[in-house]
Amino acid sequence: MTARGPTSTRTGRTGAAHFTGIDDLLREAFTLFADHIVMVFEHHLNRATNADQAREAVTDLVHALSEGPQRDLILTQELYTLAARRPEYRELTQAWMSRSRHLLERHFDPGTARQLDALIEGLTLHRALDTAPHDRQLTIEAVRRISGTA
Q1: Dihedral pair phi/psi, residue 18, rounded to 5°
Q2: Which residues contact residue 82 at a Cβ distance below 8 angstroms, ignoring those fewer than 6 apart?
Q3: How many Å apart are CA 5 and CA 3, to the nearest integer?
Q4: Radius of gyration of the chain (CA)
Q5: Rounded Cα gap, residues 115 and 147, in angstroms
Q6: Is a pLDDT exceeding 70 seen at residue 14?
Q7: Which of 3, 111, 132, 147 is buried most deeply by CB count within 10 Å?
Q8: What's residue 1's pLDDT?
């Protein structure tokens, strides 16, 4: 199978990409999507220089992701569905979660980073799908409770 257009930025190749099948193409597309979301995490978390700024960055991240493009929400849920069914996609989501947690661990201990990662996923989904999304204050309170400052 051949697809035209840009390929992975990791390889530095451009032009025609050759895929062995639809699964190969899907894995590459979802890998690039996961890279995009990790860059959003980096954008928010890399600016923090202390714990308070890190908590603020997590709050900003929840709101940026939940108010972001509908496409990102759809692709995230599609990837999760594939990962629930197929181990090769679970490996991809595991790598994504590991990268996200690593960024959080720059500011929080590993257990707290894992809890915050789950909070980000949950609050983002709830805010994106709720007809009356919760306000920023609820996110701030949740982040403080998990990070031990409530």
Answers
A1: -110, 120
A2: 26, 30, 89
A3: 7
A4: 17
A5: 9
A6: no
A7: 147
A8: 41
Tokens, residue 96? 């994504």
> What's the rounded Cα separation, in Å, for the pair 27 and 91?
10
Fill in the DSSP letter of residue 20: S
- Which residue is it, tokens 């007809």? 131
Q: How many CB atoms lie within 10 A of CB 8?
A: 14
Distance (Å) of CA 3 to CA 14, 29, 73, 129? 11, 11, 24, 33
Say how far apart CA 71 and CA 22 lie, in whole Å.
20
Please state the separation of Cα 60 from the chain's center in Å: 13
Record the tokens describing residue 136, joined without a space: 């920023």
pLDDT band at 149 (very low <50, low <70, confident <90, very high): confident
As a whole number, mean pLDDT of residues 122-150 equals 95
- The b-or-e profile of 41-54 (16+ CB within 10 A means b, else e) is beebbeebeeeeeb
